[in-house]
Amino acid sequence: MSHSPAARERLALAADLPLEQGLSLYSKVAPHLAYAKVGLSLFVEHGPAAVTAFQKLGARVFLDLKLHDIPNTVELAAARAGALGVALLTVHAAGGEAMLKAAVRGAREGAKAQGHAAPKVLAVTVLTSLAAEDVAAVGLTGTPEAAAQRLARLSLDAGVDGLVCSPREAEGLRRSLGPSLFLCTPGIRPAGAEKGDQARAETPAFAIRAGADLLVVGRPVYTAADPVAAARAIAEEVSSA
């Protein structure tokens, strides 16, 4: 069984590994995953070099920094990210309307200055590691799904390009916010895989049927006995969902 080319465009490898290991892994699984997600650990250690290293392998880079600060600081950081030519950039929806608008503005201006296409700015609603009791403990009212809906509407009103949400929230967000919204779902775990610290994880097929555009997979690939086979199987599941 093989997967469609479109399936590859809907998958991102969370390269939460030492840089050389992450690059080696991506070079092997690249036929099955178009994006490489550079998160906080890699960026803190290597900075922009982590981004350019994956770009040299042909990856579309998802810079997952979840920016959350005062608007001016976020605008400056987003401009630097845009100038790097990343495809996707995350910010926290909880930063508020002014910060979200600043992120979009900075990302577009930074990309334009260097001749790149502007990255999609994705707002993180409720972290997939938070269960219902955690959401209540941090002061958000209602269920995680209700909190995600409120933060999603705030983010879209501020002009972001899409959202990061758990697979369990994707269907409701797609239904209420329309077909053009870009939805990214982390917390993807194939059937039988360990959930780890993901409290609201689901399978690739579940996420696709719920309306997700991009699925982020990390540990199910890089902890597998055969990472290439694991990546291929996930892409095949996306194709057939």
Textual characterization of the structure:
- The chain has 241 residues and is an alpha/beta fold.
- The chain is 48% helix and 15% strand.
- The protein has an 8-stranded parallel β-barrel, surrounded by 6 helices.
- Helix 5 (71-83) packs parallel to helix 6 (97-113) and helix 8 (144-157) packs across helix 9 (167-177).
- The chain is globular and about 45 Å long.
- The relative contact order is 0.15.
How much of the residues is beta strand, in percent? Answer: 15-25%
Cα shape:
globular
By DSSP (H or I, 4+ residues per run), the number of helices equals: 12
Mean pLDDT: 90
Strand order of the largest sheet: 1-2-3-4-5-6-7-8
Helix content: 40-55%
Cα-atom Rg, whole angstroms?
Answer: 17 Å
Structural class: alpha/beta
CA(first)-CA(last) distance: 14 Å
Number of strands: 8
Low-confidence stretches: none
Largest sheet: 8 strands, parallel, barrel
Q: What letter string, H or E per element, gives the SSE order?
A: HEHEHHEHEHEHHEHEHEHH
